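hey so u asked for the seq, here:
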Amino acid sequence: MNPAKILLKLTRGCAILAGFAILLMMLAGAADVFGTNLDVVGLRSRPIPATFEFMGAMMVVTVFLAVSYTQQRKRHIRVELLVRRLPENWRKLADILQYALAMILFGLIARFGWAAALHSFSVGEYSTGLINFPLWPARFCLAIGVTLMTVQCLFDMLGVVFSRFRIEEDEDEPPSQYRID
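ran it, C-alpha cells below
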C-alpha cells in the first residue's frame, strides 16, 4: 500500500475524532448555558461542573488532531506573493524549505508534547474543581496530532520531488500545485 494512503487514513481518522470533539463541545456548551439560565423560567440555575475544563481539553483535541489533515489538503493559509513569481524550480525549492522548517518546528513540539503527555499520565495530572478533570488525554492528543503533522510535512517535502509521497486528489478537491505523471 502507498505510504501516503496510509497517512491519509490516519489523518482522516484524527480529523473525524476532531469533528466529534467539536460536537461534544457544542452539546456541553449548550447544556451549560441552558443550565445556568434556568432562573429565567423560575427554576434553580446550575452550571455543569467541569464544563470549562472539558471545553479546554476538547479545544486541544479539535485543533491538534485536525492540523495534519488540513495540511494534507493544503488548506492552511499561505501567502505566495513573491513565491508565485519565481521559476518552477525555485518554487519547488521554496516549498521544500517551507516544509522542512515546518517539520522541524512541529517535530520539536512533538518531542516536548510526548514528554509532557507521558509525565502527565505518570503523575495522574488533573485540573482541580468540583470534579477533578484529567488532563493527560488532551496532552496525548496534542502529541499525536503534532507527530502526524511532522510526518505530513515530511511527506509534503518528499512529495515535491517524488510522486509516491503525494495523494491523488479527490474529484471535488482542487488539483495540487505539483503534478508529475
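The beta strands are 126-127, 133-134. The radius of gyration is 21 Å.
lmk if thats what u needed
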